[in-house]
Amino acid sequence: MKLAEIRLKSNEELKAQLSDTRHEYMNLRFQVVTGQLTDTSRLKQTRRLIATLETILRERELAASREGAK
Prior knowledge:
- There is one protein chain.
- The protein is mainly alpha-helical.
- It starts with a helix and ends with a helix.
- The protein is built from 3 helices and no strands.
């Protein structure tokens, strides 16, 4: 998913996607431990998507607090 597509989503959608992505990451980690995961690059991709989602949510939170302070 591209960054521009992520930025178009609402906060609620981002939080839902973040929750789903964290759950997916947990399942991927279990698959690595049990030897079922063959494409280990998915771990890195999922971890980066989580970081991107958290960053965008934090940016919005800071922007809202700045607007409230003015």
